[in-house]
Amino acid sequence: YEGFGALIIPIAIAALIIANTMLGSVFERTREIGIYSAVGLAPIHVAALFIAEAMVYAVLGSISGYLIAQLVAKIITSTNVLPGITLNYSSSSAVLATLIVMATVLLSTLYPAWAASRLSQPDIDRKWRMSEPVADIWRFQFPFTVSGLQPLGVAQFLADFFEAHTDTSVGKFYTDKVTFTALPLRDAISLLNAGIETAALAAHGVGADGMAMRGGAKNSAATNGAANGQSTAKSGFLRKKKSGGTDATEPVKAAPIIALDAIPADPNTEVYRLAMRVWLAPFDMGVSQDTDIILLPANEPGLYELQLRLVRQSGEIAAWKRVNRQFIGDLRKQLLVWRTVDREGQQEYILRGRAHVTGQVLPEEQPGMAVSTMAG
Questions:
Q1: How far apart are the C-alpha atoms of 316 and 320, rounded to whole Å?
Q2: Where are the alpha helices (DSSP H) in the chain?
Q3: Could you say which of 23, 70, 113, 340 has the lowest number of CB atoms within 10 Å?
């Protein structure tokens, strides 16, 4: 180890060369990074891809260097070019050299990986953040959109996924009474908005006299607005509190109300809903919830977004929030899988979904057969 100090400068030069090479690779693959972002990968996932690629190079480089060194040593000893030298292939120096190479590659890749994550970052949030539940209701919009007839195919695709989890031995959750239906947009909005203001009031133990909407409107106005499908406060309510002998207000988080008039679609537009009862692992905690997944027209015409509404039925609320992260992660993975289904497969799901909501029956013995008639 006496000569280790003399290696610091060569190692630093090698690290800069590796970092420059990886940084050039990042900017050469800008289009590829954009595709990763489009299919739903978070910036941290894109960075992990580049780090994993660098670690593969590090392992291959270390192993290749070790094998080349042994080959050269074999040639030296067999030709007796340097007599009197004894080589120890299993010495700690060989292990240390391998670790130095791998650590140098890894550290040199951190900045290029960060640059790649910045290229795939659509806004200031580096990863998708879930909203907080209000009392026993948890509702949020997934970062997932589809267009055309794909909402029907996605609904059927997810219905098959959840119906495959009706047994407690499959996965980290199991479902019961999975239903796939079509309903008017107006009814879907009412379902998604149901109980939000009431749950916010109950969660904080504040009556109508103790809570006011922003701008001075009373709580009754909020309730009436929600009933009529009108837009209310996007960020929740203001609750009165005592601070130093004076009244003050503090924000209370609540799920935003979806305004029917803000969606550029006819109120009678057909949308698709999956409803089920879900039990979440570990099952000895007794956590269950009613789950509604609705594919709703987005604010941009032609696009549909996925809205998720969870209503806790049993289990401690802290445990409910914690174990739901795994359930939501599994759902996100399925949505990414949908992106990988080829066009013919997606069309098959669309046909099956249309047959389901219109009451038609597809012959199972002929899985490739199309539906004879299509409604709408």
A1: 6
A2: 8-28, 30-38, 43-79, 92-119, 150-163, 185-193, 196-204, 219-227, 317-340, 343-358
A3: 340
Q: Is the separation of the CB atoms in 292 and 191 below 8 Å?
A: yes
Res. 349 pLDDT band, cuts 50 70 90: very high
Cα–Cα distance, 45 to 337 (Å, whole number): 16
- Count how many Cα atoms sit within 13 Å of the Cα of residue 314 in the half-sphere of its side chain: 11
Lowest mean pLDDT: which of 27-36, 152-161, 360-369? 360-369
SS3 144: strand
Round to whole Å and give the CA distance between 222 and 219. 5
Q: Which two tokens stand for residue 45?
A: 């996932």
- The closest of 339, 317, 336 to 328, measured between CA atoms, is 336
Distance CA 82, CA 157 (A): 69
Encode pLDDT of 41-67 as tens digits.
778 888 888 889 888 988 888 888 888
**What pTM value is reported for the model?**
0.57
User: Token pair for residue 68?
Assistant: 């080349």
Mean pLDDT, to the nearest integer, of 184-201?
A: 81
Confidence of residue 142 (pLDDT cuts 50, 70, 90): confident
* 100 CB burial (10 A radius; 0-12, 13-18, 19+): middle
- Extract the tokens encoding 268: 């009678």
For residues 179 and 197, give the distance between their C-alpha atoms in angstroms, rounded to a whole number.
27
Of the candidates 103, 119, 120, the residue with the CA atom closest to the CA atom of residue 55: 103
